[in-house]
Design a protein that fits this description.
Blueprint lengths: L2 E7 L6 H10 L6 E6 L12 H9 L5 E4 L9 H13 L3 E4 L5 E2 L6 H37 L15 H12 L4 H8 L3 H9 L1 H10 L3
Parallel strand pairs: 1-2, 1-3, 3-4
Antiparallel strand pairs: 4-5
Helix pairs in contact: 3-4, 4-5, 4-8, 5-6, 6-7, 7-8
Length: 211
């Protein structure tokens, strides 16, 4: 039995070091760390990612797969749910760093299986909805930034990165408390409140500063 960390790193802020630190702080240790770099969340299916293919080849029954959240395992709802169910059928145990959730095939009770599959579907749908909302916020921020002249006043430089903003929005969408979000993202509560209350403005600030 081996434990794998699978991380997708699609921007300069989404570093593997940050994701490894989060996982280790949650109590995980790894035999293998597999990283997909420069991959957009909604552009490339899991099986077609260079390291995604490697992961499919390496995982065996009894192995543990650790991911930051279920959105790491696919580009959209269908991709995420298909990937998770395929791994479960293989006997792989999937664990998330955020909220420390576990998905496996240990139960044979049909009601428990139905609840598990419904939860997977809900989480995958929420992940896609959040990604689409973030992309719309990015478009709005870019459009607003283009309306400004090159020497326009940009305001105070954001105290958060794009990865931290995504962490805040992901956890907020799942109902996580502000204190826990601030601790996980490494931000002040005031910054968390500002991001949650106006994600478009938060994205615009990052865009204006080209962060």
């Amino acid at each position: 039995m081996a434990t794998f960390l699978y991380a997708r790193v699609s921007t300069s802020e989404q570093t593997i070091a940050h994701q490894k630190t989060q996982a280790e702080q949650a109590g995980f240790t790894f035999d293998h760390v597999i990283v997909d770099e420069g991959v957009s969340g909604m552009s490339v299916p899991m099986r077609e990612r260079p390291q995604g293919r490697r992961l499919f080849d390496m995982l065996r029954s009894g192995d543990i797969l650790v991911v930051r959240w279920v959105d790491r395992l696919g580009r959209n709802y269908l991709d995420v749910t298909d990937t998770i169910r395929e791994f479960i059928r293989r006997g792989v145990v999937i664990r998330t760093i955020i909220n420390n959730m576990t998905f496996d095939g240990s139960t044979r009770d049909p009601m428990q299986m139905a609840v598990r599959d419904a939860l997977i579907s809900f989480m995958a749908a929420s992940a896609q909805a959040q990604l689409e909302a973030t992309k719309e916020a990015q478009k709005a921020g870019i459009a607003n930034a283009k309306e400004k002249s090159a020497d326009a006043y940009k305001g105070r430089k954001p105290s958060y990165s794009r990865e931290q903003m995504k962490t805040v929005l992901d956890l907020s969408a799942k109902g996580t408390g502000v204190a826990e979000i601030a601790r996980t993202a490494g931000l002040s509560r005031q910054t968390v409140y500002r991001i949650v209350e106006d994600p478009t403005a938060a994205e615009k600030a990052l865009t204006m500063w080209r962060l």
